[in-house]
Amino acid sequence: MAIETKEQVLERIMSREKPVCPHCHQEMSLWEVPPFTFSDGLGWGVPYLFICFNDECSLYISGWDNLKENYNHHASYRCMNYPGTEQFEMMPVFSPVGATGQIIDDQVLLEQEVLKENTKKGFSILADCYVARDSQTVMAILLDAAQPSRVRLKAAEMIGDIGEIEAIDPLRSINVGNQLIQNKMTDAVRKIHERFFTRECPFCAEIIKQRAQVCKHCGREVAGV
């Protein structure tokens, strides 16, 4: 079974209607789980939950007295729901602002939608570039920090398949700040050399033929090096 990425899980959740809290009948907020375990220590099980942050919710209001009387804790409950299910449970909170830092508001959802559209657009352009063998546009996308990471990663892979010798120098020289993309750029250099039967002189770094005995640029012997 294919494992979903966190981005894919969020996209799937966003395609559904938000659930309504069974205690106050208010729409619940999408919430990103924190990086620590909960309850039995086994983890949350999902990267996102729906939480009711309505301070007028009956569960939240009664929870303060309930936990104080029974456990002597200054805390209350928020209703939580597992996305895509009818499973509603209680999550303890220790202040009115507890857990609010993980709320995914409409601005975040909008940014996710923009990222999704830019990613689709980028992949479409790359597909056209591959058919046209347009390595210059692929390289421009790869080096554009404004492009989504997934698009740049695909561009790095593609440049190895259609890139020319001239692409090697920027692929070697530029640090894009993303190790996965950087690794793909290194793989792309290897692919280009394989396609053109070339390599780099170990002394001057200029491009030479794979079977060269002497570097035509610096004159050093490169046989067996």
Brief account:
The protein is an alpha+beta fold and 225 residues long. It has seven helices and six strands; from the N terminus they run H-E-E-H-E-E-H-H-H-H-H-E-E.
What is the CA-atom radius of gyration, in angstroms? 27 Å
β-sheet strand percentage: 5-15%
Q: How many β-strand stretches?
A: 6
Mean pLDDT: 89
Provide a count of the helices: 7
Strand order of the largest sheet: 1-2-3-4
Structural class: alpha+beta
What order do the SSEs take from the amino end to the carboxyl end, as H and E?
HEEHEEHHHHHEE
Low-confidence parts: none
How many discrete domains?
2
> What about the largest sheet?
4 strands, antiparallel
Shape: elongated
Written account of the structure:
With 225 residues, the chain is α+β, with helices and mostly antiparallel strands. It folds into two domains: 6-102, no CATH class; 118-209, Leucine-rich Repeat Variant. Helices cover 43% and strands 12% of the residues. It is built from seven helices and six strands, in the order αββαββαααααββ. The radius of gyration is 27 Å and the shape is elongated. The two termini are 46 Å apart.
